[in-house]
Amino acid sequence: MISLSAVSRHFGTGPSRVAAVDQVDLNIPGGEIFGVIGYSGAGKSTLIRLLNGLERPTAGRVIVNGTDIGAASERALRQVRPKIGMIFQHFNLLWSRSVRGNIALPMEIAGLPKDEIRRRTEELIGLVGLEGRGDHWPSQLSGGQKQRVGIARALANQPDVLLCDEATSALDPETTDQILDLLAGINRRLGLTIVLITHEMHVVRRICSSVAVMEAGRVIETGPVAQVFTAPREPVTQRFIGQIPAPEPKSLSIRLPDEAAQRLLAIAASPDLGLSLKNLTREGNGFRGEVLIRPLALADGVAQLRAAGIDVSEG
Ligand SMILES: Nc1ncnc2c1ncn2[C@@H]1O[C@H](COP(=O)(O)OP(=O)(O)OP(=O)(O)O)[C@@H](O)[C@H]1O
């Protein structure tokens, strides 16, 4: 659906030249929720603007839904842009238009018949949970409600791709989760591809299936979220993981015969499971005690312990 090959975007010339995006390769399959995470200045905004042609690449190719966005004429871009919706950190609503008016705007620009605009606007108001607020003005809405209008407006022309530029960064944690859940629901119901950029690990963990980590214009690590954040290779990725408090390890009781002791020590030495032993004491011809294990590694850990002849039980 989206593919970037060797894409760079430079600003300025000579010694003041900045490589905002530097030799980026990315493939985002259709229907996915793909996160791009990085600290300020990493190049995330520039990358997302390359996807809808607001920025042109200095080098490389940007293909979105079969269109070479980087090389497309302004006229061709005007045709494909309605199929690439975008939502923003500060919502970017028109204050002089009601909720309904804001949502209808892209359809008015596209020249849709009035009846159809009216029907779709009501449908979108329902989709984003703003029933009864169609006549409200943006100034009468909370941040979360404003973003719901932004989402409805972005979906007005039935896009294939939704770009989210720090869409929850101005919202409190509870509203953030509501908006993220709304986006996940829309992804499931409409099957559209979502690309979101963020500096918050929580956002990626909550709704993304895959992620790219950016630093200094480059994608330094990418893959399925579980994989990238379970075994991070890069220091920046490890810093993002530090934003989330580590989940409490789970405690399990174990009993084992003497001959399984060596196997237990080998399992405990494996860094993937993050397993530690507690209160190990002698009992008959063996040992009893506890293991602490990371929740994510629980199923794998229990399977390995049992295969090694160790009796495992809860509590
Ligand atoms: N139009 C521009 N002219 C010159 N430099 C720019 C321009 N746009 C971005 N840059 C530079 O490119 C680099 C990447 O910026 P970008 O805004 O893409 O990063 P970001 O990860 O989105 O950061 P933030 O979250 O702070 O917006 C920065 O060093 C920035 O100063």
TrEMBL record:
SMART domains reported for this sequence: AAA
GO CC aspect terms: plasma membrane
Keyword Transport among UniProt keywords: yes
MF (Gene Ontology): ATP binding; ATP hydrolysis activity
Domain ABC transporter, chain residue ranges per copy: 2-241
Domain of life: Bacteria
Family named by the database record: Belongs to the ABC transporter superfamily.
Protein name: Cell division ATP-binding protein FtsE
Organismal lineage: Bacteria, Pseudomonadati, Pseudomonadota, Alphaproteobacteria, Rhodobacterales
